[in-house]
Amino acid sequence: MIDLDDAVALSVWPSVPRRRLARMLDALRRRVPFADRSTGAEADTPIGPPDDEDRSRGPERLEMLLRRLGEASQAPALGRELRDSAAEAMKAAARHSIEPIPIGDRRYPPLLAAIPDPPVVLWVRGRVACLGRPSVAIVGSRAATPYGLEMAQRLGMDTSTHGLVVVSGLARGVDSAAHRGALAGAGATVAVLGSGIDVIYPPEHRRLADEISERGAVVSEFPPGTPPLAYHFPLRNRIISGLSLAVIVVEAAERSGSLITAECALEQGREVMAVPGSVLNLRHGGSHGLLRDGARLVESAEDVLDEVGVMPMRRLIGDDPQPEVHPLLGFVPPGEAVDPDSLVHQSGLDASAVLSALLGLEMSGIVRRVDGGRFVRCERTC
C-alpha cells in the first residue's frame, strides 16, 4: 500500500493532516478515487496505480502523495525536506534499537489500523508481537492518591496475569503504577509516548521504560528525537485507546486528560470502564461522570475480563513464588506485621518495587494485608 520510505517521510511531517492521510491511504489500498471532504473535490483517477508498469517510485511517489494531500505547490520542496528528515530519523532509530512499523505492514496492530486516524508509522522498541495481542488500557491521574495507585497496580497485575496486555502512557501516577503491576503479573505491557522513544518523559521513568521494552513494547507515532510537547499527549491518547479493547479510568478529575482517552475510546467503538472512588474527593469527579454516563463500574480484574470476553486463567500452584527464594520475605518475620515504609528502609528497594512485590505475594497467598496497611506472612496458603 505504501512503502517504508514514504511512510517514514510522512511520519516526520509535523503538520501532517492525519485523518485526511488515513482516508487517502484507505483509498490507495482499495484503489478507488480519493475524495477531499474538506473541499468536495475528488480525484478523477484512483490513487492506486492500475498496474505494475505505472507504479511511481521514490521522490515521484512521495510528491504524488503530497499533492493528493493538498500540497501541490510545495510538493517538490516539501518532499526533499521530508526525505532528509526521514533519513535522519532512520539513523537515530537504528542507534536506539527502534523499529518503524508502517501501516499496511502485517505486524501493524489491526485494532489500531481500524481507528479513523491511525499513525502512518508506529515506532517500536521491544516486542512487536505483543501489539497484536488482546489489550486493555489503564489510565488516570498523574497526582494519584494511594488508593488510586494501589487500584491501578492491582488491576495491571491481575489483568496481566490473565493474559491481557496492559496499555498505558508511562506518565507519573496511575500510568506507571499500571505498568509496574503488569510487570509484576508476569505479563506484557505497552507504553505509548508523547515524544520520540529515545526521549523518555518523565525522565525518571527511563528504567521503567527499559523494563517495559524487555517484556512488552514502548511505542510512539513521533520519530526519534521528538520532544514531549504539550499537544502531543492528546494525540498520544488516541493510540492508547486504539490499541485496546477497553479503557479503564482510575481516579480522574473532571478535566483530566484521561477523559480524552475515554472520549477517543468511545469514538473508536471501544468499551469504557471506570473505578469508583470517594464522592468527597474531587479527583474522582471525572470517573464518576463516566459511570453516570454508562461506563461499566470496575472493582476487580474479573469485571474487566467479563467486559472484554476473556476467560479467567486458573493460577498454577507451581507458579507461585516460594518464600525461601523471595528476597523481600527476609524482612517480614513470621508472626509480625510490617508496613511498606519499613520494608523500603530495610530492603533498600524503592517504594514502587516494594508495593509491586507485596501485591504479588498477596495474590500468591504468601502474605496478607492487616489493619493499618501492614502485611504479615501466612503460615500456609491464605
Describe the structure.
This protein has helices spanning 4-11, 18-30, 58-68, 75-95, 110-113, 146-161, 174-184, 206-215, 232-242, 258-267, 285-292, 301-308, 340-347, 351-363, and strands at residues 35-36, 41-42, 99-102, 121-126, 135-140, 165-168, 189-192, 217-220, 246-250, 271-275, 296-297, 367-370, 374-377. With 382 residues, it is an alpha/beta fold. It has 3 domains: 4-95, no CATH class; 128-308, Rossmann fold, CATH 3.40.50; 319-377, Winged helix-like DNA-binding domain superfamily/Winged helix DNA-binding domain (Arc Repressor Mutant, subunit A, Orthogonal Bundle). Strand 7 (189-192), helix 8 (206-215) and strand 8 (217-220) form a beta-alpha-beta unit. The chain is elongated and about 75 Å long.
Summarize the structure.
Residues 32-55 and 314-325 have low confidence and may be disordered. It is built from 14 helices and 13 strands.
The level of helicity is: 25-40%
**Order of the strands making up the biggest sheet:** 3-4-8-7-6-5-9-10-11
Q: Which fold does the CATH topology of the largest domain refer to? A: Rossmann fold
CATH-scheme architecture of the largest domain: 3-Layer(aba) Sandwich
- The dominant shape is elongated
Number of helices: 14
What oligomeric state best describes the polypeptide chains here? single chain
- CATH class category of the largest domain: Alpha Beta
Distance between the ends: 56 Å
What structural class should be given to the helix and strand makeup?
A: alpha/beta
Largest β-sheet summary: 9 strands, mixed
